[in-house]
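Morning. Coffee machine broken again, so started the prediction first thing and wrote up yesterday's gels while waiting. Chain of 263 residues, entered below exactly as on the submission form.
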Amino acid sequence: MIDSLPLFHRIAGQPVVVLGAGEAAEAKRRLVERAGGVVIDDLALGIGKGARLAFVACDDDAAGEAGARDARAAGLLVNVTDRPALCDFTVPSILDRSPVLLAIGTGGASAGLAKQLRLRLEQILPASMGMLASALYDARAQLRARFPDAAGRRRALDAALAPGGVLDPLADATPQSVERWLAGTQAATADEIIEIVLRSDNPDDLTLREARLLGTADIVAFESGVGSAILDRARADARRIAIEPGTDVDRDAGLAIVLRAPL
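Came back before lunch.
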């Protein structure tokens, strides 16, 4: 059993009440505006405009409780900052790979924990994930044409999106990957050059994405200050090229990683 039902609420162009002043209230205003909502600072005005959500971020507990009570009595769903017992809904930590959104919530138990989980996931999920989602949406007609049977279409998508698949979302799949897949000409690995500026010689400081790329690269070009512990994370059969600091690498077939020495 879960304590709350996660929902994505579309508020673009809609009025949303935000009561209070100070940093917490400003954070809620920015959040509403980021989602395209129209911030209303007055409860009565918000009710008149048909608002359905209210954020209450008052420094004074009594004022916050009164604002929450009045908003709820008017039929609005209410969130009260740092008062989970007074909330109809809580605000998750949001990882934005639009149109892919990951919402990490703890039911108000610990915003700090939710934030740290989001930061860890930020390192894992490539920026290209949103473009991949949009490309799949745009390709719905082509998908149905190539895989007319719904069950067959699901199986094909599952295989393509699975770890190591041609559309693996954690392997920087792109709209071009979708086009190649639907055309039946997909390549196992894109021909590209990715530069990684190291933060230290400790391989544990690599992000999960960096470690994954290093482990799949066909070519590893590295500056003289890059330690062997980092290079050991590369594929054993990857071609290694020592380069001078700041030197560019010519594009070659397959995936090439350029390792820059720690600053």
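The chain has a mean pLDDT of 89. Going to sketch it on the whiteboard this afternoon.
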